[in-house]
């Protein structure tokens, strides 16, 4: 479900807020920061590609998104012009008036490598906290969201099969290391890495409780806060 927000109910736009933008006809999202703004315009740092700033054509459509703790807010804007502050090129964009709020069920995925272990469930719906007599296989995440994980596995997994998953946030031995145990289902096989004997899968969490989902979303939120442009 999506909710369109009006001027009285919208995410906060402010200087130094990190956002992501996507140019018309492209699929790549670029991280940037709001460096200045007024009542009608926001000024964001021009993203770069191979060391050169990406400058669209005046009048081109630009999509933006704001990553909040509980949702992702999408908006559309128009590129107005370029402004140079010192040697820093700024993109001038129309200040958005409306937003589309992606409910948490859409689950924004954040690229991150985490230590994960998986074990085949004996039957669908098995309590993921039950770990007795299981052979855990180490895998690595490529990204993670509130709804699932994209991972690299050294063994072939079965599509539509449920697996128990143990996700480790933090380094082994770290007193602040957080571990979540849950059940996930393989929903797609994306690729086989020839020469590496590894498989890439998309898995979806099954019957995850909201407290576990909140821990994952908070982890992603904190990564976005700490990550520099």
The fraction of residues in strands falls at over 45%
Average pLDDT: 81
Order of helices and strands: EEEEEEEEEEEEEEEEEH
Helix content: under 10%
CATH class descriptor name of the largest domain: Mainly Beta
Number of helices: 1
Rounded to the nearest angstrom, the radius of gyration is: 21 Å
Question: What's this entry about, in short?
Answer:
The protein has one helix and 17 strands. The protein has 229 residues and is mainly beta.
What does this structure look like?
The protein has 229 residues and is mainly beta. The protein has 2 domains: 2-106, Pnp Oxidase, Chain A (Roll), CATH 2.30.110.10; 110-226, Thrombin, subunit H, CATH 2.40.10. The chain is built from 1 helix and 17 strands. The strands form 3 sheets. A 6-stranded antiparallel barrel has the order 2-3-4-9-8-7. Strand 13 (137-145) and strand 14 form a beta hairpin. The radius of gyration is 21 Å and the shape is elongated.
């Amino acid at each position: 479900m999506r909710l369109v927000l009006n001027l009285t109910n919208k995410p906060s736009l402010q200087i130094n807020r990190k956002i992501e933008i996507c140019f018309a006809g492209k699929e790549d999202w670029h991280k940037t920061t709001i460096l200045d703004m007024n009542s009608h315009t926001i000024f964001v740092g021009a993203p770069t590609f191979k060391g050169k700033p990406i400058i669209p054509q005046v009048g081109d459509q630009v999509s933006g998104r704001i990553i909040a703790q509980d949702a992702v807010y999408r908006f559309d804007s128009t590129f107005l012009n370029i402004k140079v502050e010192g040697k820093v090129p700024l993109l001038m964009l129309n200040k958005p008036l409306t937003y589309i709020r992606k409910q948490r069920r859409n689950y924004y995925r954040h690229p991150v490598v985490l230590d994960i272990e998986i074990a085949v469930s004996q039957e669908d719906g098995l309590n993921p906290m039950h770990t007795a007599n299981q052979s855990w296989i180490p895998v690595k995440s490529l990204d993670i969201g509130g709804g699932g994980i994209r991972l690299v596995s050294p063994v072939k997994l079965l599509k539509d099969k449920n697996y128990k998953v143990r996700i480790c946030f933090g380094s082994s031995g770290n007193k602040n290391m957080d571990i979540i145990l849950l059940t996930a289902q393989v929903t797609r096989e994306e690729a086989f890495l020839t020469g590496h004997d590894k498989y890439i899968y998309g898995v979806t969490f099954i019957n995850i409780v909201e407290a576990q989902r909140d821990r994952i979303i908070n982890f992603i939120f904190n990564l976005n806060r700490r990550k520099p442009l």
